[in-house]
What we know:
Helices cover 35% and strands 19% of the residues. It is of the alpha+beta class and 457 residues long. It has two domains: 10-34 and 41-149, Nuclear Transport Factor 2, Chain: A, CATH 3.10.450; 156-455, Beta-lactamase. The strands form four sheets. The protein has a five-stranded antiparallel beta sheet with strand order 6-5-13-12-11. It starts with 45 loop residues before the first helix and ends with a helix.
Amino acid sequence: MIQPVPFLAAAAMAMTMTACAGQAAPVQAMPVQAVPVQAVPVQATAAAVAAPEIPDTPAGRQVRWLLDAIARPPIPESELKEHFADAFLQSIPADQLNQTLTAFTGMRLQELTGSEDARLTAVVEAAGALFDLSLTTDGAGLIDGLLFRPPAPNDWAELDQRLSALAPQAGFIAAEVTKNGTCRPVHSVAPDAARPLGSMFKLYVLGTVAERVASGAFRWDTQLTITPELRSLGSGELQNRPDNSKVSVLEAAKLMISISDNTAADLLIHKAGRKNVERTARAWGARDKRDTPFLTTREMFVLKGADYPRHAKKYLSLETSGRRTYLDKVIAKVPLSRIAAWTAPRELDTIEWYASPAQVCQAFARLSKLPDKRVGEALSINDAGLALDKAEWPSVWFKGGSELGVHDLGFLARTADGRSFVVTTLAISPKTPFDAGRTASEQLGLTRGAFTLVKGS
């Protein structure tokens, strides 16, 4: 997540909302912009026409009310308070909830897939597409969880078809991480084609930091100083802290991964050393020549957004040593105020960070073999709304990346019996930006299905 204009950060990739952090299962709602254009179309069959009977349970009664209320938006706030738990409405206010539900006006129940007193799952149809619906209730029978998401693919052929509709250029891999730390591919699409990574490059930064800590170069509690020269733009919070503020290596690492904090990434690259990050990336299999020099996010912003295309053309005309000098002597002196936002994909093939789906898988695999538990702590803070069943998948790691025309998601998940799998989707649109919410929503649906399929392989 790197562009210097408003966007969906990694921590809210699918705009997943949590109403009560203390619950065992997250309480989630998918807002209007997350309705995927690639959702599975409704088939005109008798089964789709015959509405199933809704059970007379607390969850069932709330589903029955929701089907009625969603047809007459906006739902009055007083009525919402009669059906949603206070904690839910504190997290997702009435106006935001109404905006979300408007996307499902005319929703019809197609199939019940699960029913308990306090939980109901179903397939619903809205706007000509199918969605998985999950609704849960609290002890008072009020809705404390509501989730709409695209259905997971049933097989690899369906996944491939939906992936091809997702982006003009797409790469994919679903693989098992072996005991010796390599990836055993189970299914893939263009697995060896290097694509722009967006903030997914931060996997290599995290790995380098962990290795440098292990070598004794510095410690997780070593303090970093936020200076004007190391301040970046885009996602994160460190860029908003005062000059000369301190942040520990560990806090910066967690922010870099969990909310894709760009200033945190640049601080860590500076501390660990650009050439050390380049060595780690190469050692882990990412050997694209365009990754040298390994850019900071600030440098990328300046090259693409300050006096464009002057700096970009000059930089690209140089060899590696000249590029390093240009970054240090020229780009480093350009103030953030000179950077202007861009509105279309720019220099995706020339100024970015690059790796293939297979190489991203290898990065996750290498991270999983590092002995330092702090690596896993950083990668497991945010799952981007994937919401795998914790009983089956107790550990989930995530890192995504995006800029205009780039939308990438990468996950490593471990099963209850200790097997590890990686699913990575790289989506590239060289000419037009993605609708970030819709693209992420569909990618999450594909990813959930892929984990089910790869686990059974």
